[in-house]
Here is the input.
Amino acid sequence: MAPRRRQSVTIRHVAADAGVSLQTVSRVINKEPNVRPEMMERVRASIAKLGYVPSIAAQRMGGSRSYLIVALNDRERTIADWRNRQGTDWVDQMMLGGMLTCAEHGYRLIVELVDTHSDHIERELLGAIAALQPDGVILTPPHSENPLITRMLEAHGISFARIGSLKLGGGFALAIDDEGAARMATDHLIGLGHRGIGLIAGPDEYELSGWRVEGWRKAMAAAGISCDGLLAQGDFSFASGRSAASALFDAARAPTAIIASNDQMALATLELARERGLRVPDELSLISFDDTPIVRFVHPALTAVIQPIAAVTARAVELIVAEQSGQPTPPGPIMLPAELAIRASTGAPR
Amino acid sequence: MAPRRRQSVTIRHVAADAGVSLQTVSRVINKEPNVRPEMMERVRASIAKLGYVPSIAAQRMGGSRSYLIVALNDRERTIADWRNRQGTDWVDQMMLGGMLTCAEHGYRLIVELVDTHSDHIERELLGAIAALQPDGVILTPPHSENPLITRMLEAHGISFARIGSLKLGGGFALAIDDEGAARMATDHLIGLGHRGIGLIAGPDEYELSGWRVEGWRKAMAAAGISCDGLLAQGDFSFASGRSAASALFDAARAPTAIIASNDQMALATLELARERGLRVPDELSLISFDDTPIVRFVHPALTAVIQPIAAVTARAVELIVAEQSGQPTPPGPIMLPAELAIRASTGAPR
DNA sequence: GTGAAAGCGCTAACAA
DNA sequence: TTGTTAGCGCTTTCAC
Here is the structure.
């Protein structure tokens, strides 16, 4: 059995060492006002000397912040991604942006997985909240607009950010500019001389699917090109991508370029093109809407939309931290731009 | 400013609802003896009815476990991997094995990054320990045998597991059977008819580098093949892989097969082979010591050693949890076998 | 078997 | 500007 552990250096030791009261030390730790610089320096010195670090548990018990932010991800999808080992790095990018930003502000990020489709999602979330008492929660699709979740968070008075949502409502809404990204991708192709630019849309249950279609539509319209017969739909799976691509290839107006709404569908399109003897990019230009490792190491490497997931998460953390410290926070939804990585799969049409 | 939050349902409410004392509830929560089944049932019912979840912070304050396990990873390398977005999924696999196993036992896994090469590694770790008060820590290379770390953990009486270490000493040592994996890879090539089997070793600061060399040596020796001039060394980076491969190609005894100690060096070898007009696998067989997405999607797909990182981490969590609950734990180091995924990059030599 | 006490390390409210 | 007091929710004594 592990020995009973107690904090070795407590606020009490620091107070004694500095010859001040607990409260003064507490004030210094929490950067509260009403402490003379001189006192502050003395306390700081003692803290450094003794190597004191406040206990999050005790801080939380005293009724203050827990300095913990929970990043909520869909259990099923996340575990499936990890098991597949296909390089999907959504969680990694969240950690990259989230952990580093948390660290800057003295917070810690904890990744939690919950079942979306389960009816005990409330119990699961409640458990995490009660156990961890986080200061903030970051919601990711498909949780971002789940009213069961947002309502509970509001009821508990916990700051939260909704990634991938532009709806107003409780918490901070922030999203990647999917429409702009789709426009950028389409414009890139138009600039190369393409006119028959097909789009393989994602499923309707993801709101971003619609945003991407919208961006494509607008770019086409701006260039005076009709979209007729150039739209197909998939569900983000490889198989659905194949049939969508097949439909586009066989259409009356066969496209010279295709934008697929995610990597799997882009890869499926590439495979089908290869099978049909369509050379990429000479006979078909192709753009993926995910910049996963695979699309970069496939031949030819795919031109792709880079989604700033780390940046969005970092922003989410900043908003939560700001709210915690009573700083003003922007009212409306926040939108971050995506980038386009131009690689070998796009070129001028023959 | 966020409203001051307090636990809504506490042990007190449960006690009142069940008509028992706080202690009885506490005993039920912690599965302690000396509670009549009847009482236990009543308490259980109240807990379910009220949706009570104990506060980790308060539990920890009371002097018991924190139900937190920290997974310590190297900051620099981890962040670099995330930034590169090349599909390195060490952390993901750790989370897969670690989080799920933690969840089974009511624990939570927190990923922490620390600077290995920094001299304030002690302060960093101390900070994490004091703040989080974890019940256990999982060390990964290159921290696993850092005496600064292990000594501090022992001094604080915190259970810890050392992944990638076989040394006896404080904490649990567990490792992937790197030597066996190297032997397996080498045997695979020998079985295909190769004799000139080169090895690109990893840097010495990782003990596993030596184990892999050892496994290769033994397999070669068992087949009566000399290793002379077939060993090169890199530091796990792409660039170092290129020079190591180059050295092997230019050696008096040019190898017909190469085993690279990680994916980056394997990819570098593949690239160089391509540049030099060496066809893989016809003129050069290649094995990677990491099964990251890239090595699977490159052409030809690489035969690779699959490292059971999730399984090792899961085992580490189990050991820590067992020690926490006073269960007996195995004395010696634990070794888990790796697998070999045979793909298109290995074949018979011409 | 069960309950009453004290206290964990910290912060909020108040007083000085 | 500083110190004092009273908890936070829980677990550990130790009585009963």
